[in-house]
Design goal:
about 160 residues, mainly alpha, Multidrug-efflux Transporter Regulator, Chain: A, Domain 2, three-stranded antiparallel sheet, 7 helices, about 55% helix, about 5% strand, MerR_fam, HTH merR-type domain-containing protein, MerR-type_HTH_dom, DNA-bd_dom_put_sf, DNA-binding
C-alpha cells in the first residue's frame, strides 16, 4: 500500500504555518518534500515528523541555522550537543537577568508614592540619585548592578560589597 502524502497546503494547515514557511525551509535545505508532481510539493509522514522536530527546537530557543546544523551536519551527535550547551548557557543568562528584573519590580512594590518619579518615592529615590556610571556604587540594589554590568564593562564598577 502506498504511503499517504499531504500537499503543501494540507501540511501548512495541519501545522498552522504558511506555505511560504515550508518553501523557505526548502530553500535553506531544512526540509524537502518527499516528492513533486506537476510542480506540487507532497510531504510524507517522515517530513511531518521532521517538521515537528523543527518546531520543537525552534520553540526551545534554536535558530533556524542552528536547527539546520543539528539536522544536517555530518558530525552528528557531537555537533548538536555543543549547540544545545551554548543555547543552555544563553538561556541561563536570560533567566538570571529576568530574575534580577523580577527582584527589582518586587522591591519597587514597597514604594508608597502614586507616581514613581513625581512622588519622590523614598524607595526609588536612592537609586535614581545614582548616575549610570555609579550604579555599582549604589547603596542598595544588586539588581541594578547586574543589569548595568550586563550592558557595560565591569571595569566601571567599584565593588561595594553587595
Amino acid at each position: 500500500m502506498k504511503e499517504k502524502l499531504l500537499t503543501i497546503g494540507q501540511v501548512a494547515e495541519l501545522f498552522k504555518i504558511r506555505t511560504s514557511t515550508l518553501r523557505y525551509y526548502e530553500d535553506i535545505a531544512l526540509l524537502q518534500p518527499a516528492e513533486r508532481r506537476s510542480s506540487r510539493r507532497y510531504y510524507s509522514e517522515r517530513e511531518l515528523q521532521k517538521l515537528t522536530l523543527i518546531q520543537l527546537l525552534q520553540n526551545n530557543g534554536l535558530s533556524l541555522e542552528d536547527i539546520r546544523q543539528v539536522l544536517t551536519d555530518p558530525n552528528g551527535i557531537k555537533n548538536w550537543r555543543e549547540i544545545f550547551n551554548i543555547i543552555i548557557d544563553k538561556l541561563d543568562e536570560k533567566i538570571r537577568l529576568a530574575q534580577s528584573s523580577k527582584n527589582f519590580l518586587a522591591y519597587m512594590l514597597d514604594c508608597p508614592a502614586a507616581n514613581l518619579f513625581q512622588g519622590r518615592c523614598p524607595v526609588l529615590g536612592r537609586e535614581i540619585e545614582c548616575r549610570p556610571d555609579q550604579i555599582c556604587q549604589c547603596p542598595r540594589f544588586p539588581e541594578l548592578k547586574a543589569i548595568h554590568s550586563h550592558k557595560a564593562s565591569a571595569s566601571h564598577c567599584h565593588s561595594s560589597g553587595f
